[in-house]
Amino acid sequence: MRQPITQLPALRSNPATALFAATLLALALALAARPVAAGEEVTVSIDNFTFNPAEVTVAPGTTVTWVNNDDIPHTIVDKKQAFRSKVLDTEGKYSFTFNTAGDFTYFCSLHPHMTGKVVVKPAG
Amino acid sequence: MTKSDTSTPAADADGIHRRGFLECMTWAGTGILWSLSGGLPSGLGLGSALAAEPAKAFTFLQISDSHVGFDKPANPDALSTLREAVARIRTLKEKPAFMIHTGDISHLSREKEFDDADQIVKEAGLPVFYVPGEHDLLDDGQGKAYLDRYGKGSKGAGWYSYDHDGVHFIALVNVVELKAGGLGNLGTEQLEWLESDVAGLPSSTPIVVFAHIPLWTVYPEWGWGTSDGLQALAYLKRFGSVTVLNGHIHQVMQKVEGNVTFHTARSTAFPQPAPGSAPSPGPLKLPAAELRKSLGIATVNFVRGSQPLAIIDQPLEG
Question: What DSSP assignment string belongs to chain A?
Answer without folding.
Answer: --S-----PPP-S-HHHHHHHHHHHHHHHHHSPPPBPTT-EEEEEEETTEEESSEEEE-TTEEEEEEE-SSS-B--EETTSS-B---B-TT-EEEEEE-S-EEEEEE-SSSTT-EEEEEE----
